[in-house]
């Protein structure tokens, strides 16, 4: 089963643990992309994971079939505002790992009630493929999504 191209908006600890697990499970580095504001962080991610990293969040959205929102909740509104138009246009599967931000809140921030948005709370053991992730999906999401 292919997950398609996975883009991470935010590349902190939980994103990096998820990337480690994905790559260890056989997802090719060419299928993973991330954004980070910090030049040093972008360099470190490229070296550590061999993935494409950008300072441009919209570029990550444009290349992603699945988008992982992994920023601090207080940064979410600004980040989502900067990519809402392209996200509504391209309609990737959106998975949020942000604490304290509901699917309802995310729909409001994106300005669309029909995007496919899930929430996931992984634990740190995802890096070694021994983790547990709790997933919530909107009731209107279909099996095809």
Short précis:
The protein has helices at residues 13-24, 39-49, 57-62, 73-90, 103-110, and strands at 6-9, 32-35, 52-54, 66-69, 93-96, 117-122, 133-137.
Number of helices: 5
Please tell me what the overall shape is.
Answer: globular
Strand content: 15-25%
Report strand order across the widest sheet.
Answer: 3-2-1-4-5-6-7
What structural class do the secondary elements suggest? Answer: alpha/beta
Summarize model confidence as the mean pLDDT.
87
Amino-to-carboxy terminus distance = 14 Å
Low-pLDDT ranges? none
Largest sheet: 7 strands, mixed
The portion of residues assigned to helices is 25-40%
The total count of strands amounts to 7
| SSE arrangement, N to C | EHEHEHEHEHEE
Spatial extent as radius of gyration: 14 Å
Could you describe the 3D structure shown?
With 145 residues, the chain is an alpha/beta fold. Helix content is 38%, strand content 21%. Helix 5 links the parallel strand 5 and strand 6 (117-122). The longest helix has 18 residues, at 73-90. 33% of the residues are buried. The mean pLDDT is 87.
Annotation keywords:
alpha/beta; single chain; 145 residues; seven-stranded mixed sheet
List the helices and strands and how they pair.
Elements: E1 6-9, H1 13-24, E2 32-35, H2 39-49, E3 52-54, H3 57-62, E4 66-69, H4 73-90, E5 93-96, H5 103-110, E6 117-122, E7 133-137
Parallel strand pairs: 1-2, 1-4, 2-3, 4-5, 5-6
Antiparallel strand pairs: 6-7
